[in-house]
User: Fold GTP cyclohydrolase I from Advenella mimigardefordensis.
Amino acid sequence: MSDSNIKKGNEQLAEQATHPDDSGYISIRIRERIRQAGARFHANDNIARFIEPGELDQLQQEVQDKMQAVLSSLVIDTDSDHNTNETAKRVAKMYLREVFAGRYTEAPQVTEFPNIEKLNELMIVGPIQVRSACSHHLCPIMGKVWIGIMPNEHSNLIGLSKYARLVAWLMERPQIQEEAVKHVADLLMKKVNPDGLAVVMDADHFCMQWRGVRDMESRMINSVMRGSFLNDSDLRKEFLSLIRAR
Ligand SMILES: Nc1nc2c(ncn2[C@@H]2O[C@H](COP(=O)(O)OP(=O)(O)OP(=O)(O)O)[C@@H](O)[C@H]2O)c(=O)[nH]1
Assistant:
């Protein structure tokens, strides 16, 4: 980072400090609030409730300044290289507003309708295209998710698009696939309260393709079965054969 960039970054951080005695790093204040609440802030946790209005902009600026330092340590001349001149800014925006946005924003609003007609037939949604990142290398995970729902009279019905919105909100975080699928199942159990739920995810892990073992063929497929999908092997088979046919 050039001296002028460092100075600019420091001035911006100083301006952001609302208390004269804090370091100016908004991430420190947010972390402190989370710790005081006894909450967790792993890569796949949502921390939106600890971020006050306007603070996400400050956090993005902090990430930008630190990303600029990473580029500088990579010995990239971001001052004269027109291609990387604004890379720190782009990457900060991409992390906070796009690929990891599920950490920093509240869950999408979902209208829940009562199951007036007492529907109890298998319903399948998918393939829902999903984009996530592994928490080990922050490399993309790109894949598909299928959801099977067996409602009962106590279930809520939610709009079809809401499955995709909820799944996207959970996926836009660094994580491992096993936990991602479990989180999808937990959230849908809470929202829909079905008799049974099945979630299958099939994804490419770029940390195995772009780098590391550089295996372009292998993928990860995993599933979570709850309630009647666990207890009723015919239902499970019907679900799996219907998604296989797609
Ligand atoms: N179980 C699981 N592993 C994952 C997932 N995404 C990435 N990984 C793996 O996480 C592992 C991280 O392993 P490490 O040994 O700590 O890192 P590394 O030395 O860079 O590993 P290599 O990829 O083998 O070069 C790698 O084997 C990845 O393939 C996931 O969703 N689930």
Remarks:
- Residues 112-245 form a domain with the GTP Cyclohydrolase I, domain 2 fold (CATH 3.30.1130.10).
- Confidence is low (pLDDT under 50) at residues 16-21.
- Residues 134, 136, 176-178, 205, 207-208, 212-213 surround guanosine-5'-triphosphate (CB under 6 Å).
- Strands lie at 112-114, 123-134, 140-150, 156-158, 174-175, 196-205, 220-227.
